[in-house]
Design brief:
There is one protein chain. Helices cover 62% and strands 8% of the residues. It has 7 helices and 2 strands, in the order H-H-H-H-E-E-H-H-H. Helix 2 crosses helix 3. It starts with a helix and ends with a helix.
């Protein structure tokens, strides 16, 4: 019985490796290959994740701004309004569920301190300077948000213990 499970895992790994190799082989001929390469400079966005996201979304130029992209993915809050009353709810989850899942899963990598692995650093260095500049700005924003969250959580812990 255990041998069957091991064989199933090995077969799944072989299939994954075969499909990844096919994606790598097809990517250079794709017009959106530079976008896939740029996405791979972010933590949580390796080859399969980036290629799948761009395959699901298509050309990102069709979105006029990030809000339109987030609305397309369903990553905006729902709203219930009547007269002067306005209540915001959970995510709408409208649109392409496969495309929505990919950035959400990739975002889990940002719950850890901002460290850049050797592999990620090499992918980033292969990108043009404007993309690297954007990444540095985004990394600074993530660090600031992470620090603010840590300070807020520390303040909440002191408040719960009855300390100022």
């Amino acid at each position: 019985m255990l041998e069957d499970y091991i064989a199933a895992v090995e077969a799944a790994e072989a299939r994954r490796d075969r499909l990844t190799a096919q994606i790598e082989a097809m990517l250079p001929d794709w017009t959106l290959a530079p976008v896939v390469a740029a996405l791979q400079t972010m933590r949580g966005m390796a080859l399969v994740n980036a290629a799948t996201l761009i395959a699901e979304l298509g050309d990102l130029a069709r979105f006029g701004n990030p809000r339109q992209l987030m609305a397309y993915l369903g990553l905006v809050p729902s709203e219930h309004s009547s007269g002067a009353s306005l209540k915001r709810g959970g995510l709408t989850k409208a649109g392409n569920s496969a495309a929505r899942r990919l950035p959400v899963e990739a975002a889990w990598c940002y719950r850890f301190p901002a460290r850049v692995s050797r592999e990620l650093r090499l992918r980033q260095e292969a990108q043009p300077r404007p993309i690297r500049d954007r990444l540095e700005g985004a990394a600074a924003a993530v660090r600031a948000l992470s620090q603010a969250r840590s300070q807020r959580q520390a303040g909440q812990c002191r408040h719960r213990r009855g300390r100022p």
